[in-house]
Design goal:
Order of helices and strands of chain B: EHHHEHHHHHH
Radius of gyration of chain A: 26 Å
Distance between the termini of chain A: 50 Å
Structural class of chain B: mainly alpha
Helix content of chain A: over 70%
Largest sheet of chain B: 2 strands, parallel
Structural class of chain A: mainly alpha
Number of helices of chain B: 9
Radius of gyration of chain B: 19 Å
Shape of chain A: extended
Strand order of the largest sheet of chain B: 1-2
Largest sheet of chain A: none
Strand content of chain A: under 5%
Number of strands of chain B: 2
Distance between the termini of chain B: 35 Å
Shape of chain B: globular
Oligomer: heterodimer
Chain lengths: 263, 199
C-alpha cells in the first residue's frame, strides 16, 4: 500500500471521527474488503494511542539522557585508565633503554609541533579565501555521541576533534561513519574536511544527512557555508533560503548571511 | 502519574518509587548507577551488545513507570530483584523472538511469583517501547509537529505554534509520520512481533 499524504489525512480524520457520516461508512466498507488498509489504520491508531502519552515520552527522553551521561562518564574513566596504563608501560620501557630515547621523544614532539603549525597555516590560508565564510563559520561543537561498541575509539576521536586536530581524525571518522548509524558523525567528518581544504568531500557528508534527522538543519547550514568557502555563493543562497523557511536554530544566522551576500 | 497505591515493604525502594513519581533526576540517576552493572553483565554474557543493555534498561524502567501510573505495582521483596527479573525476562524473550543464541536457557518464570501479569505486561509493551524509541530519534521539528498531531491539535493550531504555513505544516506532518513508520518497521524486533501477531 502506497502511503500518500492523502491516505494519511483520511486515516487521521477517520481516527478523529471527523469524517462526515457517509464518508465514514464508505471508509469502513473499504477497510472491510482491503486488509492492507485495515492494517494501516490499526497501526496508526496504535501509534496515536502510545505517542499521545506525552508524560511517558518525556520520562523516556529523560532516562535516555541520564544513561547517555553515565555512558560518557564511564568511557572517560576507561580512557583515563588506559592512558595511565600506557604511561606506566612507556615509563618502564624508557627506564630499560638508553637516554637516547629522550632525544627521540623530543624530536617526535618537534615534528608534532611542526604538523600542528602546518595545519594552522592551512586553516589560515583557507580562511583568507572568504571573509564572509570566516565571519560565519564556527566548527560544529564536539558533544558526546557515544553509543554502542565503537565508543572508546569515538571518545578519543571526539577529544582530538575538540582540540582542532581535524586532519588526525579524518581517517577514524571515515571508518566510524561507515560502521555506525549515528548521523551526527557526518557533521564531524564534514567539518574536519572543511578545515582541511576538502570542501567537496565535506558537502557530500552534509548531503548524506537524512532530511528527517535531527541533525539535518545543522548539516544544511554547513553545506551552505561549504559552498561559500568554495566561492560558489550562487549555490549557498537557495540553501540559506531553505534554512530560513525551516524556521529553526539557524534562521537568524541564515538571514544575516543572506543580507550580506545580496548587498 | 498520580498513583501512590503501590505495595512495597522496603523503605529505600519506596523512596526510589517516590523519586520516579516526582520526576527526580538524582533518584533516577542513582537507580541507573546502582543497577546498570548487574543488568549489563547479564546481557553482555547472553549475546547482547551495549545498545541492547541501554534498550532493555530503559524499557524495563518504563514498565515500572507505567505500573506505578496505573497503580498496579506490587513488590513484596526488593525493587532490585523485581527490576532485574523484568530485565532478564525481557531480554530472554527478545532473544527468543530474534532466535539468537541463549546462554541462560532457563524458562521464563513469573517474577518473584507475586506479579503474575508482569510477563504479559512485558510482551504487550514491546511495541510501545519501539514506538517511543524511534519517535525520539526524529528531528526536533518532527517531534514537535507530531506531538501536536497526537494531541489532536488542528492544522491551524499547529501552523500557528510552529510558524509554518498550513500547507507546509501538513506536508511536514506527513513526511515526519512517514519517516517514523519506516524506522519502526525496519526494527528487527518489530518485524518479529508483527509476524507473531499475524500467526
Amino acid at each position: 500500500m502506497e502511503r500518500t499524504q492523502e491516505l494519511f489525512e483520511k486515516i487521521e480524520e477517520y481516527l478523529a471521527e471527523a469524517l462526515p457520516p457517509e464518508e465514514m461508512e464508505a471508509f469502513e466498507n473499504e477497510m472491510a474488503i482491503d486488509p492492507a488498509l485495515a492494517l494501516e489504520v490499526s497501526k496508526q491508531r496504535e501509534l496515536h494511542r502510545v505517542l499521545s502519552d506525552t508524560k511517558a515520552l518525556e520520562f523516556r527522553k529523560k532516562i535516555e539522557n541520564i544513561y547517555q551521561d553515565i555512558r560518557a562518564e564511564e568511557e572517560a574513566e576507561k580512557e583515563v585508565e588506559e592512558a595511565t596504563t600506557k604511561k606506566r608501560t612507556s615509563f618502564s620501557i624508557q627506564h630499560n633503554s638508553s637516554s637516547f630515547s629522550y632525544w627521540k621523544i623530543a624530536a617526535a614532539f618537534i615534528v608534532l609541533l611542526g604538523i600542528g603549525n602546518l595545519l594552522w597555516n592551512n586553516l589560515q590560508q583557507a580562511g583568507k579565501n572568504s571573509d564572509l565564510y570566516l565571519s560565519h563559520y564556527v566548527p560544529y561543537p564536539a558533544e558526546d555521541v557515544t553509543r554502542g561498541h565503537v565508543v572508546t575509539k569515538l571518545d578519543i576521536v571526539m577529544k582530538q576533534y575538540a582540540n582542532g586536530e581535524y586532519q588526525a581524525v579524518i581517517g577514524e571518522l571515515e571508518q566510524l561513519t561507515a560502521m555506525s548509524k549515528i548521523e551526527q558523525l557526518r557533521l564531524y567528518l564534514g567539518n574536519s574536511y572543511l578545515n582541511t581544504g576538502k570542501e567537496k568531500e565535506a558537502i557530500q557528508q552534509f548531503e548524506n544527512v537524512s532530511d528527517t534527522s535531527k541533525f539535518y538543519e545543522d548539516a544544511t547550514w554547513y553545506r551552505a557555508l561549504s559552498y561559500l568557502k568554495l566561492g560558489q555563493s550562487d549555490k549557498s543562497i537557495p540553501i540559506l533560503k531553505e534554512i530560513i523557511s525551516y524556521n529553526g536554530l539557524y534562521r537568524e544566522k541564515a538571514i544575516q548571511l543572506m543580507n550580506k551576500l545580496e548587498n | 502519574m498520580v498513583g501512590l497505591h503501590y505495595k512495597m515493604s522496603n523503605i529505600d525502594d519506596r523512596k526510589i518509587i517516590e523519586g520516579i513519581i516526582a520526576d527526580d533526576d538524582a533518584v533516577i540517576e542513582k537507580f541507573y548507577r546502582d543497577h546498570l552493572p548487574h543488568v549489563r553483565n547479564y546481557i553482555l554474557q547472553n549475546s547482547g551488545s551495549e545498545d541492547d543493555v541501554g534498550d532493555v534498561f530503559h524499557d524495563a524502567l518504563m514498565v515500572i513507570y507505567q505500573k506505578i501510573g496505573d497503580n498496579s505495582l506490587e513488590i513484596t521483596s526488593s525493587l532490585k530483584t523485581y527490576f532485574f527479573a523484568i530485565c532478564r525476562n525481557m531480554w530472554l524473550s527478545r532473544l527468543r523472538v530474534n532466535k539468537r543464541y541463549v546462554m541462560d536457557d532457563t524458562v521464563l518464570t513469573n517474577i518473584e511469583g507475586e506479579d503474575v501479569s508482569i510477563q504479559e505486561t512485558i510482551e504487550n509493551s514491546e511495541k510501545e517501547h519501539i514506538y517511543r524509541k524511534y519517535f525520539l530519534t526524529l528531528s526536533d521539528a518532527c517531534q514537535k509537529v507530531l506531538s501536536m498531531v497526537f494531541l489532536d491539535k488542528t492544522m491551524r493550531e499547529i501552523a500557528a505554534e510552529t510558524g509554518y504555513s498550513e500547507g507546509y505544516a501538513r506536508k511536514k506532518k506527513y513526511e515526519c509520520k512517514q519517516a517514523l513508520m519506516e524506522r519502526i518497521e525496519k526494527d528487527p524486533m518489530y518485524k518479529e512481533l508483527k509476524k507473531t501477531t499475524e500467526d
